[in-house]
Amino acid sequence: MLAALPRFSQQVNRVLTWVVVALFLIWIVGNILSAPEQFISVLLLGISLGAIYALVALGYTLVYGIIELINFAHGDVFMLGTMVTITVANGWLGLDGSQAWYVTTPLVLVTLLAAMAFCGGLNVAVERVAYRPLRNAPKLAPLITAIGMSFLLQNVGAAIWGFNERPLTATGDSIFPADTLFSIGGVPYRAKSLIVVLITIPVLLALVYLVRNTKPGKAMRAVAQDMDASRMMGIDVDRTIAFTFALGGALAGAAGLLFVMFQTSTRFDLGFQLGLYAFTAAVLGGIGNLTGAALGALLIGLIQAFNEGLSWHTPGSDWTESIIFAILILVLVFRPQGLLGEATADRA
Asked: Which of 32, 116, 154, 316 shows its CA 20 to 30 Å from the CA of 74?
């Protein structure tokens, strides 16, 4: 009798999951039929948001996969990446939207490299100063330290760049021309949306190649599986962990540039909210799983865009955070390993 209870619970969870999926599909179909052009526009927006969230979520999942730490300061590293992007692109390189695309594009790539280098170096410094001394401490100690580093970086951003919203340009416009590149179902697709995809896809492919096929990537996977055995095999664990933080920071810098290019402004407290969205995406997809993090980020981006942009029976933008965190709670309760993750025992 008692042995049958877990099986019954699993069946109930499976039924509830399919009920929720069915209701969601009915809602999507209803919005498509009521306003097809609006749905296409919101869908494109969700894909762009998901691409940005994916770069941040991958930073969370890389660090967790190797040392099992939720780096809550990662969202604020991303925020500082947006600030550096504005400083370099507008303040140093003079990009203001008046330049032709063939002038803007190389300068954006320079800005991208600057933001990635800054955030990568900052993340390594955070790991060296705040996390490495606590590596053998109880797990609660580095977790609290990560929260403290988040507030510290947030206030550093406010002290340097101010508490008010910072626009990318003086006029608040994008630095890319606003011309329509092409239309999908009558919905215009603009350059700032295309740049998000053109940068995100190569970065994600390069990350997957690096982790799976290069010597540093193999060292990362070895340390993630067994840190002590990796030391005995001659792997420099400290250097590998620092490299992982540098890689995660570089991804946050790339996401910072894409966010500013897409939204055209940023704030000192941006990292807290967006970081939690990206963390939810990593948990949803399966934290520690690169493909899962990207999938979870795409789903979170679409859910946010659908809730805030569709008009047929939507809760509205005021409910976006509640919906996303409700998803986080449900995943942690019913499938803590995420969509693509595997249930594993804690490492000793």
From this structure: 316
In DSSP terms, 166 is beta-bridged to 266
* CA–CA dist 230, 21 (Å, integer): 43
**What's the angle, vertex CA 9, arms to CA 5 and CA 12, rounded to 5?**
140
Nearest alpha-carbon partner for 247 in 59, 55, 83, 54: 59
* Residue whose pair of structure tokens reads 């740049």 in the numeric block: 195
Does residue 203 form part of some domain? yes
The phi-psi region of residue 165 (left if phi > 0; otherwise alpha if psi is between -120 and 50; otherwise beta) is: beta
172: containing domain: 44-269
**137: Cβ contacts below 8 Å, ≥ 6 apart:** none
* Whether the Cβ atoms of residue 131 and residue 142 lie closer than 8 Å to each other: yes
Classify residue 190 by its DSSP letter: E
Say if residues 53 and 297 touch (Cβ distance below 8 Å).
Answer: yes
CA distance 341 to 321: 24
User: Is 282 within the bounds of a domain?
Assistant: no
Digit-coded pLDDT (tens) for 196-238: 888 888 888 888 899 888 999 999 989 988 888 999 889 999 9
Determine the Cα angle at 127 with ends 121 and 130, to 5°. 125
pLDDT band at 84 (very low <50, low <70, confident <90, very high): very high
DSSP labels, 221-239: HHHHH-HHHHHHTT--HHH
The token duo for 145 is 């330290």
Residue 128 has pLDDT above 90, yes or no: yes
Contact 257, 115 (CB under 8 A): yes
> In the predicted model, what is the mean pLDDT of residues 163-185?
78
Residue 278 falls within a domain, yes or no? no
First to last CA, the chain: 34
> Two tokens at 9?
């619970």
Q: How many domains does the chain have?
A: 1
Residue 341 lies in a domain: no
CB 284, CB 331: distance < 8 Å: yes
Element (H, E) at 80: helix 74-86
Which token pair is 130? 């705040």
**Residue labelled with tokens 């009521």:** 34
pTM: 0.90
